[in-house]
């Protein structure tokens, strides 16, 4: 758990999107924002830019990932910026 917290802190500083797999079987690409080790919670933004918290006890794996297009996908006519 300590290694996970250290790696998450590095990814938060780098503003690195990550793929989180939880105990419920969900796998989501999120942007980690803040890690509270005392409360054992990770605050993240999802693709719709909604702030969520994920209990560290429910996290099975976290891996850095690359995203294509814009992370902010609010609205029906979301513009995807590609090169």
Task: Describe what you observe in this structure.
There is one protein chain. This protein is an alpha+beta fold. It is built from one helix and five strands. The longest helix is centred in the first third of the chain and has 13 residues, at 2-14. The N and C termini lie far apart (38 Å).
Brief summary:
This protein has one helix spanning 2-14; strands at 18-22, 27-36, 41-45, 51-55, 59-64.
Sum up the structure in keywords:
single chain, 83 residues, alpha+beta, 1 helix, 5 strands, 16% helix
The tally of helices reads: 1
- End-to-end Cα distance, whole Å, is 38 Å
What series of H and E elements makes up the topology? HEEEEE
- Coarse morphology: globular
How would a crystallographer describe the biggest sheet? Answer: 5 strands, antiparallel
> Based on DSSP secondary structure assignment, what is the total number of beta strands?
5
- Estimated radius of gyration: 13 Å
SSE layout:
Layout: H1 2-14, E1 18-22, E2 27-36, E3 41-45, E4 51-55, E5 59-64
Antiparallel strand pairs: 1-2, 1-5, 2-3, 3-4
